[in-house]
Amino acid sequence: MPTTVDGIILGSGHNSLVLQAYMSRAGLETICLEGNAHYGGGLTTVEYPTGSGFLHNTHSFYHRGLNGLPWYDDLELEQQGAQYLQPELNVALITPSGQTLQWWNQFDKTVASFASFSQRDAETLQKWRDEFRPILEQILIPESQAPPLPLEQREAGLRRSALGRRLLEVSQLSPLEFVQENFEHPTVQAGLLFFNGLREVDLRCAGFGHHIPALLASDTLAQMCRGGSLQLANSLVADIEQHGGTIRCNCRIQSILVEGDQVVGVEVDDGEQIYARNFVASGLNPQQTFLELLDPQHVPASWQQKAHDYQYNLLAPLFSLNLNLSGPPRYSARHDHPELDEAFMVILGLEHFDQFPEIIRHHEGGTIPPTVMWGSCPTQFDSSQAPTGNHTAFMWEKLPYAISGNAQEWDTLKEEHGKQMLDVWDRHAPGLKDQVMDLFTRSPLDTERSLPNMVGGDLLCGALAHGQIGPHRPFPGAGHYRGHLSGLYLCGSCCHPGGNITGLPGYNCAQVLSADLGMVSAWSPPPLLQRWPAS
Ligand SMILES: Cc1cc2nc3c(=O)[nH]c(=O)nc-3n(C[C@H](O)[C@H](O)[C@H](O)COP(=O)(O)OP(=O)(O)OC[C@H]3O[C@@H](n4cnc5c(N)ncnc54)[C@H](O)[C@@H]3O)c2cc1C
């Protein structure tokens, strides 16, 4: 007898797991199929070397405001062992000349840090924070936590209120223009853009200007999961299994099965067919879902073309250097700023606004730019991630996926590049090299190899650019978490609001799927237009 369940979910990234948890809690019988040996996708924590007790988060580490997300509470993940830490000195940019620009949990300390560069910039920061806070809380956050509105309806909904009209006005700029128009000090400008660029929004793109003031208004700073990022996946899986769901790893999906205009199941790599009574939800990218897994006869030519044309971010790929250490990095700038010993995210190599065009040029040309990198020493905040008295630390650098047009080049270049990063790091933190017990690197190509949905190493699983946001993400017609066939859903980062560890594509898909299945979902928020200000 073939296995038959209510719903099948493809890929076990956190978005898939969030969707599966809601569906399992609703009483549906679900199975999640994962190609890798472990579940979690970007929620990966590995021990290196095996048996050493040194844990490394090889994909995501900084989970922004995670314990404030609605699904975190709905799914009661703390009862399943998830625990989040948000260190006080959240981000510290240390310039090559030893100055530091800092973001603190306490906003007045952030303002004071900006003032040490420019009093005017500190005042501008405070002004935008005050103005954008209600826009963020009443419009942007609810929007990210709901299926997107059609564009005309969105615009009309925003035009009803002064807050909405102001948002539309500020959005017209690009993040680059916003920063140049509002802030004067080149290090402040660079810090704001870099911090925003970490979310992979294209800084040159008009229409995204509001991302910077939204960032300034936000209290949701970087957090880390105690025990490593995988603990978040473990807590989701514990909840799913407690409610009768199943996760199957080492299981490559070969095809999605279709009868008439209805998706009925999937076939996996050993030929087994698994059937779904209600739905198949894909946490994969549009090329995988519509071009690789579905037979072309079941996909209209226009959908094939749109899936084919789906774009990935040029600036998203990351290179990482991961260290096992006998002691934590100590930055020479600590002599003037002893608080740096407690800094969570440290940015090195960035000082001036003008570095951005240069970094973009290198990405476009497939060459390696001068090092700008950022990272942490997680064990300073969570000693469980290394043997007693020892530490782990990492640095990430945005580097092109293909070097001179060839991604395979990374296999020969990566060790040497890791050494160069360590040299730069050691210049800022003298003595670091002497504390290194072991190290390894991961290139953008390694990212794609371990998570094939991240084409070109794009950790957002698709560019955040016009034509691929809101109701048009991943592409027009597919922007409401539904495929073109009955029973087919999309729940991964290729959907609104996009990539990173937010769980919101999975959460929003759960709202759509619950409504389509006629299920009562007390957790589901009211329609977006009811929540937006009306005047
Ligand atoms: C180096 C790196 C650092 C990052 N750092 C951060 C960070 O600090 N903060 C942050 O918020 N985000 C970060 N990200 C981004 C974040 O990890 C992703 O945006 C997020 O994981 C996407 O979630 P998802 O659920 O959509 O898919 P994923 O997490 O990508 O999961 C997709 C799953 O599908 C599986 N899969 C793919 N193809 C198949 C197939 N054919 N059959 C079966 N299974 C398949 C994959 O193995 C994977 O488990 C980082 C990513 C990388 C690579």
Q: How would you describe this protein?
A:
- The protein starts with a strand and ends with a helix.
- β11 (262-268) and β12 form a beta hairpin.
- α4 (119-144) packs across α6 (162-171).
- The protein is globular and about 70 Å long.
- The strands form four sheets. Strands 1, 2, 9, 10, 11, 12 and 18 form a seven-stranded mixed sheet that branches. Strands 7-6-14-15-16-13-17 form a seven-stranded mixed sheet, sandwiched between helices. A two-stranded antiparallel ribbon has the order 3-4.
- The chain is built from 17 helices and 18 strands.
- It is α/β, with parallel strands linked by helices and 535 residues long.
- The structure holds flavin-adenine dinucleotide (FAD).
Return residue spans where pLDDT drops below 50 for at least 5 consecutive residues.
Answer: none
β-sheet strand percentage: 15-25%
The gross shape turns out to be globular
Mean pLDDT: 96
Number of helices: 17
**Counted beta strands:** 18
Q: Span from first to last CA?
A: 59 Å
The small-molecule ligands in this entry are: flavin-adenine dinucleotide
Rg calculated over all Cα atoms: 23 Å
Q: Summarize the biggest pleated sheet.
A: 7 strands, mixed
Walk me through the topology.
Elements: E1 3-10, H1 14-25, E2 30-33, E3 46-47, E4 55-56, H2 70-74, E5 84-85, E6 89-94, E7 100-104, H3 107-115, H4 119-144, H5 151-159, H6 162-171, H7 175-182, H8 186-197, H9 211-217, E8 224-225, H10 230-242, E9 246-248, E10 253-259, E11 262-268, E12 273-282, H11 286-293, H12 301-309, E13 318-325, E14 345-348, H13 355-365, E15 373-376, E16 391-398, H14 410-428, E17 436-442, H15 444-450, E18 488-490, H16 504-516, H17 528-531
Parallel strand pairs: 1-2, 1-12, 2-9, 6-14, 12-18
Antiparallel strand pairs: 3-4, 5-8, 6-7, 10-11, 11-12, 13-16, 13-17, 14-15, 15-16
The protein binds flavin-adenine dinucleotide.
The site of flavin-adenine dinucleotide (FAD) has 37 residues, from α1 and β13.
